[in-house]
Design a protein that fits this description.
Strand content: 15-25%
Protein name: Serine/threonine-protein phosphatase T
Helix content: 40-55%
CATH architecture of the largest domain: 4-Layer Sandwich
Catalytic activity: O-phospho-L-seryl-[protein] + H2O = L-seryl-[protein] + phosphate; O-phospho-L-threonyl-[protein] + H2O = L-threonyl-[protein] + phosphate
Low-confidence stretches: 223-231
Strand order of the largest sheet: 3-9-10-14-16-15
Family: Belongs to the PPP phosphatase family. PP-5 (PP-T) subfamily.
Largest sheet: 6 strands, mixed
Active site: 304
CATH class of the largest domain: Alpha Beta
Number of domains: 2
Enzyme class: hydrolase
Structural class: alpha/beta
CATH topology of the largest domain: Purple Acid Phosphatase, chain A, domain 2
Length: 499
């Protein structure tokens, strides 16, 4: 029988191979044999790699209880706190490390980045303006760009006086030719003219803002009192999960499963930015397709379409590096306009995270959310849960392994689906080795569309295709491998490395 140290060594091997689940298994067996601060801290590191920051926090705290002088445990807990966006607690722990090990390079780097993030948040809170103002009202769309890169875009700006302030509404006449040229420009490491960039984000924001918090598509035609009502049923819908700035994989999605068209609707289920180093390109492609096919491309908000995540996981720094700080603020405002969920054919609820802490939540509760009330997603309530929660195999509910939100079991999914007359829930938010997973007795599907996530996970990507056959949608789960891309690592533009 292997000793605890033997099991730790096996865990270390799996950690180096980036097999984090296996590493956790070996460390757990070592802990069961002989609890040790080292084993707990090592398991915390494996959880950090999987972004299970809540579990990493628990393990680091257990390590500190066993040995209050074990500095590595304080550092791991600092990283876990930063992953949970609790920056002040993270800073306290990292300064504990530096008190006793002032030359620790990792702790020095983390302290520097934490101070930068905390100061930036403090500054942005101090200059926060009223909810009626819009960054788009101050954009000059007549600005000249030194080079239009061969792109032509018709931009129309109308102005209206609202409460003694001039508001600008932007309309863009998008074309297939423009989208094709834009893709080629991005492949050649080019950027859009700034005027085009501002206009595309502004015009897309108006379309998203006009949609309901619960978008309803693919609604079958029904009759009441002899008259037809509601939309024509959409014949084919492709649901994509997280794409996380992996532009070349998004292109592969369209190449493999077909382009957006009036006969083929796409739904991107959040987290299309951050992590990957082409988040700008992904966002501009999705927004441009929304302008070209407003009734055939939809986007749900994910937990990464938020300022606090963008500050840490790369999108803000990428936009600043490729364009301007002001453009990031434009994207931020557009994210605040994104719907939170989509109902397909009255039978499939699509949302980024998962279900709720309360069994009484209904589709009408989602419909009733005033998502424009807050500039950023709330840190509690059903909006937070729609972005952050995860499934678990056991019945009931449990604290989140992420440290944010919660976990919910098959019984929770069944109650919700039965109560709301749904066939199933489709969500994203988590890597799956096979690209997708059918869970909770078939009532829940997780789909993830960023293959070889962060160039390290070796997972497949997947989409869910819903094709109308007669009066019912037929489900098909299709997978794809990662596409080749230029040699630029994930988060290449990120200046706030907190992990």
């Amino acid at each position: 029988m292997p000793s605890a140290d033997d099991l730790k060594a096996l865990g270390n091997e799996q950690l180096k191979l980036q097999h984090y689940d296996k590493a956790v298994t070996f460390y757990t067996k070592a802990i069961d044999l002989s609890p040790s601060s080292i084993y707990y801290a090592n398991r915390a590191q494996a959880h950090i790699k999987m972004e299970n920051f809540g579990l990493a926090l628990n393990d680091s705290t257990e390590a500190i209880k066993l040995d209050k002088n074990y500095l590595k445990a304080y550092y791991r807990r600092a990283v876990a706190y930063s992953g949970m966006l609790q920056y002040k607690k993270s800073l306290n722990d990292v300064r504990t490390v530096l008190k006793f090990a002032p030359a620790d390079k990792n702790a020095q780097r983390l302290e520097k980045n934490l101070v930068r993030v905390i100061n930036r948040i403090r500054f942005e809170n101090a200059i926060q303006v009223d909810d009626e103002s819009s960054i788009f009202d101050d954009i000059d769309y007549d600005i000249g760009d030194e080079n239009d890169n061969g792109l032509h875009l018709d931009i129309e700006v109308t102005k209206a006086d609202k409460r003694n302030k001039i508001h600008q509404v932007v309309n863009v006449k998008m074309t297939e030719e423009y989208v094709e040229k834009m893709i080629e420009l991005f492949k050649n490491k080019g950027t859009l003219p700034k005027k085009h960039a501002y206009a595309i984000v502004a015009a897309a924001k108006e379309l998203f803002k006009a949609e309901n918090t619960l978008v309803e598509i693919g609604i079958k035609r029904q009759k009441t009192a002899g008259s037809e009502y509601q939309n024509d049923a959409v014949k084919k819908i492709t649901v994509c999960g997280d794409t996380h700035g992996q532009f070349y994989d998004v292109l592969r999605i369209f190449e493999t499963f077909g382009k957006v068209s009036k006969d083929h609707t796409y739904l991107f289920n959040g987290d299309f930015v951050d992590r990957g180093s082409w988040s700008c390109e992904v966002a501009f492609l999705i927004y441009s397709l929304k302008l070209l096919y407003p009734n055939n491309l939809y986007v749900d908000r994910g937990n990464h379409e938020a300022d606090d995540m963008n500050q840490v996981y790369g999108f803000q720094d990428e936009v600043k590096a490729k364009y301007t700080e002001r453009l990031f603020k434009c994207f931020s405002e557009s994210f605040n306009s994104l719907p939170y969920s989509t109902l397909i054919g009255q039978e499939y609820l699509v949302l980024h995270g998962g279900l709720f802490s309360n069994d009484d939540v209904t589709l009408d509760d989602i419909r009733g959310i005033d998502r424009h009330k807050n500039r950023q997603p709330p840190k509690e309530g059903i909006q937070m849960e729609m972005l952050w929660t995860d499934p678990q195999p056991e019945n009931g509910r449990a604290p989140s392994k992420r440290g944010i939100g919660l976990q919910f079991g098959p019984d929770v999914t069944k109650k919700f689906c039965d109560k709301n007359h749904l066939r199933k829930v489709i969500r994203s938010h988590e890597v799956r080795d096979g690209g997708y997973e059918i869970e909770h007795d078939g009532r829940l599907v997780t789909v993830f569309s960023a293959p070889n996530y962060c160039d390290s996970q070796n997972n497949l990507g997947a989409v869910v295709e819903l094709t109308l056959e007669g009066d019912e949608y037929k489900e098909e789960y299709r997978t794809f491998k990662a596409a080749p891309h230029p040699d630029i690592p994930p988060m290449a533009y990120c200046k706030n490395n907190l992990f």
